[in-house]
């Protein structure tokens, strides 16, 4: 499907824009699941100032969403109305500062955050080696792995709000908890400042290598997947509940629950977003039936269903 072309109006509203705007851009190639429909407009800002300028000039009722490296997102088959912002080179800096601090752009892959800290002999950030995707997404959801969470080392963030105002906020004001941040939904993170501890580079690299070995032996890292699908419920493990519900290897269309780690859904090659979301809702229903636990999605489902292809959430609520 395709959306109405709103590029002429956007270019007229923001004539000095330096970033790239494109209409009806296919989203599937830039997400890890490799599924989904087009973005009405895909915007790649040149830098933070360019992003702020665009947001200050765009119509206030125009939907704006941000996508990072596409690791934790399921783009629905009907595509995404409005503007999808994808941060690129202008948000990819990594700088070591005095006092064991690391300043990182929101487009930097999490693994590179860990590597930069190791190169600077800063401990406390190696857990980022186990988080797929980019830093912006990690900030939004307080991503964590292998005993560490983003909030543990975070000092402050920079973000641009929907009106185009640039904000710099200390970490304590973000209300971060397990896989959650209370930062306003319309903020687009652009940069973060982390505090590391003085450490030994070789020891830190060994920690990262151990994380790499653990991931490769226990997770389907070479498959088309979005990462962990469901949040761990209080006191439990999502994968164990999925396994106990008999869902390991369960398949709908081209989507399958991973045999290796059953908190991962994978695209076996010809899945649609409808297949993947239907599979996820089926798993949630079976877990609720067998254990009484209602699992929450960790993967963000974005955009519109294809016509006639809605997925009914198993609890009878409209999908978020």
Automatic annotation (TrEMBL):
Residues 217-231 have a biased composition (Polar residues). GO terms for molecular function: FAD binding; UDP-N-acetylmuramate dehydrogenase activity. Its main location: cytoplasm. Its EC number is 1.3.1.98. It is an enzyme of class 1 (oxidoreductase). InterPro entries: FAD-bd_PCMH (IPR016166), FAD-bd_PCMH-like_sf (IPR036318), FAD-bd_PCMH_sub1 (IPR016167), FAD-bd_PCMH_sub2 (IPR016169), MurB (IPR003170), MurB_C (IPR011601), MurB_C_sf (IPR036635), Oxid_FAD_bind_N (IPR006094). Residues 34-214 form the FAD-binding PCMH-type domain. The keyword Oxidoreductase applies. GO terms for biological process: cell division; cell wall organization; peptidoglycan biosynthetic process; regulation of cell shape. It is found in: Cytoplasm. Pathway: Cell wall biogenesis; peptidoglycan biosynthesis. One of its GO terms (cellular component) is cytosol. The active site is at residues 179, 228, 298. Keywords: Cell cycle, Cell division, Cell shape, Cell wall biogenesis/degradation, Cytoplasm, FAD, Flavoprotein, NADP, Oxidoreductase, Peptidoglycan synthesis. It comes from the Bacteria. PROSITE patterns: FAD_PCMH (PS51387). Its cofactor is FAD. It catalyses: UDP-N-acetyl-alpha-D-muramate + NADP(+) = UDP-N-acetyl-3-O-(1-carboxyvinyl)-alpha-D-glucosamine + NADPH + H(+). The keyword Cell wall biogenesis/degradation applies. Residues 212-236 are annotated as: Disordered. Belongs to the MurB family. NCBIfam families: murB, PRK13905.1. Cell wall formation. This is UDP-N-acetylenolpyruvoylglucosamine reductase. The gene is murB.
